[in-house]
Amino acid sequence: xxxxxxxxxxxxxxxxxxxxxxxxxxxxxxxxxxxxxxxxxxxxxxxxxxxxxxxxxxxxxxxx
Length: 64
Hints:
Layout: H1 6-24, E1 29-37, E2 40-45, H2 49-63
Antiparallel strand pairs: 1-2
């Protein structure tokens, strides 16, 4: 339909799906302040995002 290779379409769909997942992941503040932004304390995220980002980093390293 789009006259693109199937692997290119699949890669694009996976990319969009992961971006959507990241955008919808909840931020759950922990007890530790990790930085100050515009005078406001920003707390560490104890939700699923840190684990997701670590897994993503590890997989990137494995594919290099």
